[in-house]
Amino acid sequence: MARESASVALNERLSPYQKLYLLLIAGFILGPFIPLIIQSFAFKWAWPDLLPGTWWLEQREKSVLPLAWDYVISPYSQVWEATLNTVFIGCVVTLIALVICLPAARVLARENFRGKPAFEFFLSMPLIVPEAAIGIALLMIFINIGLAGTYIGIIIVHLIPTIPYMIRMLTAVYQGLGRDFEEQAMILGASRWQILRMVTLPMLLPGVVAGALFTFLVSTNIFLLTFFMGQGKIVTLPTLLFSKISGGTLDASAAGITLVVTMPGIILLLITERFIKEEAFGKGFGN
Amino acid sequence: MSKTKELARHKRERTWMWIQLMPVMLVLTVLFGGALVLGVAQSLGFAPWFGVNTFPDFSYFAALWGDSFFWKSLGLTLYYAVAATLISLVLGILLALALVRTFPSKAFYKYLYKLPLMIPYTVGIALAVIMLGNGGMLSRLMAFTGFIDDPNQFPQILKTHMGWGIIAVYVWKQTPFVALTIYAVLLGVGRETEEAAAILGANKRQIFFQVTLPQILPGIISSTLIIFAFNIGAFEAPFILGGGFPDTLPVVAWRYFNDADYTLQLQGMATVVSIALVAGVILYSYLAFYRRYERRIGRS
Description:
The structure holds 2 protein chains of 2 kinds. By secondary structure, chain A is mostly helical. Chain A has 14 helices and 2 strands; from the N terminus they run αααββααααααααααα. Chain A has a two-stranded antiparallel sheet. In chain A, helix 9 runs antiparallel to helix 10 (192-221). By secondary structure, chain B is mainly α. Chain B folds into 2 domains: 1-43; 59-296, MetI-like fold (Orthogonal Bundle). Chain B has helices spanning 2-43, 59-66, 68-99, 106-112, 115-118, 121-132, 137-144, 164-189, 192-199, 204-233, 236-241, 249-257, 264-296; strands at 46-47, 52-53. Chain B has a two-stranded antiparallel ribbon with strand order 1-2. The chains are: A mainly alpha, B mainly alpha.
């Protein structure tokens, strides 16, 4: 009896409830994208039809592309501009975060010093102070020194929420690295430069790439800080979408833009899954 | 002699260490500390660039806190944040517990559930509009099954103070986050302790509440801290999907800032400082409570 219950408790397989639950969650996450895609290809979709009354295909003589997509790829929609801005800001933010976080992560992973826990807590502060508070307070300063509505202003504020993630992921990388391999190389007669080039860097690289991808991702998803600091002068994908749906309705072109805004996330998901192990993710978020 | 040399070397190493820590510290201190000091100063009447300088002046806080709408806004802000955090927590734990099991198509599922993590909140809001709006998919489905025959008969989900739309967006985005954090903790812990408990005759319920739950508690605490803080300061979802006046506090602050009467900006700053204060007090007591619990069960 006891053995039977033990084997039930330790079952490696899913119970029927769990199977159902996983399906429901998948539906909850992906389901809403179906009407979104349909909407972007519809010509006319009146309530209460479950599918569009007129598809774009039937009206092809009127426009070569689906109407929504025709608008999305035209310069009027600002999609290209927003995409370029998002990528540019994300790259610069990632680069700066990498440069200032690498040395700090090395110290945090290898040294012990007084006040280390306090320092680590300080580094994770941006995650637990509400963004609206930082955003509005900094906006006042930036307006006064002329940084509001500039790329520099946006890049600076993007550093706030990205630094904590970068630090945690890089610290995890250094901790995983250990000193053994470097010491072995030293014993075998390698010079400092050789050790750095042939041992440390290659071992560090996958983790650094993972941290960089993750930081880039966080930066591309920031809405509030960009919206406040951009002052409407600089659009990124999240703020562009916000301006399209802020009225609380979603037309075909807004559906198209929503899909475009989703794309970078999907691409990064496919890439990061190869670079970031679950454990590293846990170290990035945990504690 | 060698001792002083040792000491000098030690000192050099320490200096080098702090030099490496300096850039990050500098950036965060300037941005964070600057925002904090100036924010508090402004909310107390220091704004020489508007020709206002009555520091220290508590009238902005008095005006804000004396108005009943502020407390309604605060209540709404907390309600959305707490409800969304609790629902995401429960759904996320269940999801993580299912993910550690083996099942076919697990590799694919691990891509799928992370999707909301990768995309902005505004996408979630767009999805909420197309699903839950009065002319949205759910409304169409109800019409299809014959429950309603006019969009106006569809129960109002968006733009009400019940905030189901806002909560739905938060849950959609944050359940994967909680699941990911806890899944990583579960992977790190391994299953040995659960196996031991099972062999000693514990049932499923006992194993979950007495073995698994205490082990994943740090993951629960850190993920709820982060999403709760985010929810309190979130702007876009309440702005688009909220029920209008009274708004949540971040939206209130934003409206003050865009008011034609620029002296209201100081009132806005008082609102911002209030948000930070409320969040700080709640998160601090939450952490303190957790520390006490940890000490009581003899961890750390």
